[in-house]
Design a protein that fits this description.
There is one protein chain. This protein has one domain. Helices cover about 70% and strands about 0% of the residues. The protein has 7 helices and 2 strands, in the order αααααβαβα. The chain has a two-stranded antiparallel ribbon.
């Protein structure tokens, strides 16, 4: 598939700038998380502090990523998708952290709300809910960025062409919203809908995404039911 609007920049300066833009989101998120750890009240217990710090960094990362997606134009989509990818190690680390944060949120809420006052219970439930929803959004946003990166990679044999691998309806040039749609459909249903996968590498990625989503969603639902049952008792 070709995209003639924009040649691929190859200068070292551009590559370094792209790497900095990627790492800057993680760096900025870490700074906000560090500030939150300093500003949190001293009477917060350890579990509450951990979740608040994670939620702060996670929210900063999501907002900065979504802001990038909003300002990208069709002409700059290919360049941004090629450069805006966190890398497999960072992706795996963030997904693992998101899953752990979600499970810990439920476990800590179940432990800390037993016999507590109503306002304490509600605050812990609100914090747990924000952690779970935010972590779920983070996982599938990261996958959407990675799908876009893989889709707009340079073609192995054709010049000024990208790899593709996803067949969108109406044969459109996809933007980040299309990749978000594809990613969140897998995240909610563990299957694809009206977007066909036409490459082996993306089928493998979608398989891993679907399996991860199934176990993540199942574990969250099971633990949430257990948490609600524990609060009722």
């Amino acid at each position: 598939m070709t995209l003639p609007q924009e040649p691929k920049p190859t200068t070292v300066k551009h590559q370094l700038h792209s790497r900095w833009r990627i790492r800057s989101r993680l760096f900025l998120s870490s700074i906000f998380a560090l500030i939150a750890s300093v500003l949190l009240p001293s009477w917060f217990n350890l579990s509450t502090r951990i979740l608040c710090i994670w939620d702060t960094g996670m929210l900063c990362f999501l907002v900065s990523t979504w802001f990038l997606m909003l300002k990208v134009t069709p002409k700059t989509m290919r360049r941004n998708a090629q450069s805006q990818d966190e890398g497999r190690f960072v992706i795996l680390s963030l997904i693992t952290a998101a899953a752990c944060a979600s499970f810990l949120a439920i476990a800590f809420t179940l432990r800390d709300t037993k016999g507590g006052a109503l306002n304490v219970v509600l605050l812990h439930l609100l914090l747990a809910g924000a952690t779970i929803i935010g972590s779920w959004l983070l996982v599938h946003t990261i996958f959407a960025m990675h799908y876009a990166h893989e889709y707009y990679q340079d073609h192995k044999t054709q010049s000024n062409a990208y790899a593709g691998g996803l067949a969108f309806p109406e044969d459109i040039e996809p933007d980040y919203w299309d990749f978000l749609y594809f990613s969140f459909v897998i995240g909610m249903t563990s299957q694809v809908s009206d977007v066909a996968i036409t490459s082996q590498s993306l089928r493998r990625l979608a398989l891993a995404h679907g399996v991860l989503s199934f176990f993540f969603n199942t574990a969250i639902v099971a633990m949430s039911i257990n948490m609600i049952a524990g609060l009722i008792q």
